[in-house]
Amino acid sequence: MTTTLTVLVENTVPGKADGLMGEHGLSVFLERPDRRILFDTGAGAALLHNASLLGKDLRSVDAVVLSHGHKDHTGGLAAALGAIGKPVPVYAHPEIFADRFGKRADGTLRYAGCPFKREALEGMGATFHLSPAFREIAPGVHVTGEVPRRSAYETGDANLFVPRGDQLEPDPFQDDLSMVVEGRGGLTLILGCCHSGLINTLDHVRERMPGKPIHTVIGGTHLGFAPEEQLRQTIATLRARQVQRLGLSHCTGLPAGARLAAEFGDAVAFCNVGYSLALD
Length: 280
Ligand SMILES: [Fe+2]
Ligand SMILES: [Fe+2]
Prior knowledge:
Elements: E1 3-9, E2 27-32, E3 35-39, H1 47-53, E4 63-65, H2 71-74, H3 77-84, E5 88-92, E6 101-103, E7 109-111, H4 118-123, E8 126-130, E9 135-138, E10 141-143, E11 160-164, E12 167-170, E13 179-183, E14 186-191, H5 198-208, E15 214-220, H6 228-241, E16 245-249, H7 254-264, E17 268-270, E18 276-279
Parallel strand pairs: 3-4, 4-5, 5-8, 14-15, 15-16, 16-17
Antiparallel strand pairs: 1-2, 1-18, 2-3, 6-7, 6-11, 9-10, 10-13, 11-12, 13-14
One fe (ii) ion binds next to helix 2.
């Protein structure tokens, strides 16, 4: 049973993609004969426009997965629910609606969390299935739930915060999850921003799905905001784990993406708007 993944929202539009819209955010559409799943929704402006141009009918969506609460992944949810037009399950972690902030280069703070209230989204047809657990949401499609932090070097982005009382603390990103799709060629891992760390996430999937190699990883790695040591160790560990295909996008950024492309050659693709991948 072939599964097709199509990037509906991403930061960059390739040169030949007439009329598509780039936006800082991510959304990936999973299509299988029996199932359509929308993984993240972008920031809000690009989703319906790009889905329409790419010929993806969001009325067919059976389920929505939210990788984490950041608004560049949840900001298109209201528009998506309107387009889906029927009650739809939304899978995410219980902390998805937490307030969160990012620090700009000039030191000022910007709100970075989900721009919608849960009740408003429920009024638009969302039925939230919130859990920290690793779980199967459709035959052969899983979400990782909360990812244990094991690697010492995946220290992440120091400019992202959550409020605790009247203080700001580093965002622990308990809500960060990824989606796993089973195929004959192995597992495909679809990342939102992977704030949990790519290697922590790979290790969690390996532990929960033993004996099933992770063949492909696509999505945002957040390596563009990670310290050099994290990038170096991640490259070494990816090589040791023999991941066959890396589809880089979103918060990977150009410098980290270029490093990975130099290291892994033809195994790397840049998954911009309209990128499509068929998994057997
Ligand atoms: Fe992001
Ligand atoms: Fe994020």
